[in-house]
Design a protein that fits this description.
3 domains; about 375 residues; 6-stranded mixed beta sheet; alpha/beta; globular
Length: about 375
């Protein structure tokens, strides 16, 4: 079988995988680590072929190919620690799309898509259909779009048992979202996510006159980049920054840019995911007390609870970003930054759909999520 997906591991990634081998992983995770180390195409890796890897690990060639595809598209951690072996991932599809809708989507395919977006979102497509004068197509705000949109929804995890910590963190963020807009105290949601850098090697062949060319593309993982996505829900302002690292210097840069976007703010309520251990006071060790003390006085940190990433509206916005702009692989940080910069500019100019309407309140949580609240002792 031809190898379409290959990856290059950095020295840090190889060291982390070697460290995982000595920690006593589950047998299936240990075999995956061995496959990744043997299939590394970098200068430090053995770069074995499929048959050699299969003979050394006892894994079928088809499973190794699926594992390589998941590494190139999703990264190392998600592949190593997932419970099951990777299966063929089906592309995103609409649920029973109308024939006219499919035909128009193909006719308006890139480069006809809006600036900053690779594919047509359902809302943009509906507006375009009405603009071109097609009849019989529902408006963008019609409930008829609910069924296709449900296919793009993300299913978030919930806590396995009632938790007082989960309930308190959730109510803190929900009460923050229920505030009216205040220019002096804006609420900003910040998300940090990793994105795989994937290069493409064109190995197409010309089979001669009168015969279609043989298209063959080989994809190589070239590391990863980190995306900082900030959004102010009530005004729709967005900020997207791309960085090859996520150290303290990158956090300070994004905080300084957020402070410059809201120069009149006396306090910025910053909502983060639970896994971001951001302590502004610790940053003063490398950046001096002057600048960091100003940031510490300006930002007020609110963390989403564990199993509560749905409370961070920047996480929801990032899922939209993945479906609209991060469909095609990007091979370097500059190309990814240019693509996201165009998406950010288009979103900031959208005054109609740019704002996020959040209707879930503390009162709703106490009724609909009652099972997550700890029971009072009798």
């Amino acid at each position: 079988m031809a190898e379409r997906f290959n990856f290059i591991l950095s020295d840090e990634e190889r060291e982390s995988l070697e460290l995982l081998k000595s920690k006593g992983l589950r047998p299936e995770s240990l075999i995956k680590v061995q496959v990744l180390l043997l299939g590394d195409k970098g200068s430090s890796g053995p770069a074995l072929d499929l048959k050699s890897i299969s003979k050394s690990t006892g894994v079928s060639i088809r499973t190794i190919l699926a594992l390589k595809e998941r590494v190139v598209s999703g990264g190392l951690e998600g592949v190593v620690f997932e419970r099951s072996w990777p299966r063929k991932v089906c592309p995103d599809r609409l649920v029973n799309p109308p024939v006219k809708l499919v035909a128009l989507a193909r006719a308006l395919a890139p480069p006809g898509a809006p600036q900053g977006e690779i594919r047509w979102a359902l809302r943009l497509l509906a507006d375009k259909i009405l603009e071109l004068g097609y009849s019989g197509v529902p408006r963008a705000d019609s409930p008829d779009w609910a069924k296709p949109l449900a296919n793009l929804c993300v299913y978030w995890k919930t806590p396995p048992r009632p938790s007082a910590e989960y309930a308190s963190f959730m109510e803190d963020i929900l009460s923050l979202y229920s505030r009216p807009y205040q220019e002096l105290e804006p609420v900003v949601c910040l998300k940090l996510a990793s994105q795989q850098l994937v290069g493409s090697i064109d190995r197409s062949k010309d089979l001669g006159v009168g015969r279609p060319p043989f298209d063959c593309h080989e994809y190589v993982r070239l590391g990863q980049a980190y995306i900082f996505l900030a959004v102010e829900p009530l005004t729709g302002a967005r900020l997207v920054e791309v960085s090859p690292t996520k150290d303290q210097a990158d956090w300070v840069k994004i905080l300084v840019k957020l402070a410059s976007l809201w120069p009149k703010a006396q306090k910025i309520c910053l909502v983060l995911d639970h896994n971001h251990n951001l302590d502004i006071a610790i940053l003063s060790q490398n950046w001096g007390p002057g600048k960091v003390n100003k940031l510490s006085d300006l930002f007020e940190i609110h963390k989403a609870p564990k199993f509560g990433d749905w409370l961070n509206q920047a996480s929801l916005e990032f899922e939209v970003l993945k479906h609209l702009a991060l469909v095609r692989p990007q091979g370097d940080v500059l190309a990814l930054a240019e693509l996201l910069s165009a998406w950010e500019a288009a979103k900031n100019q959208d005054k109609v759909y740019g704002q996020i309407e959040w209707d879930f309140t503390v009162y709703d949580a106490r009724i609909q999520l009652k099972r997550f609240y700890p029971k009072k002792n009798a």
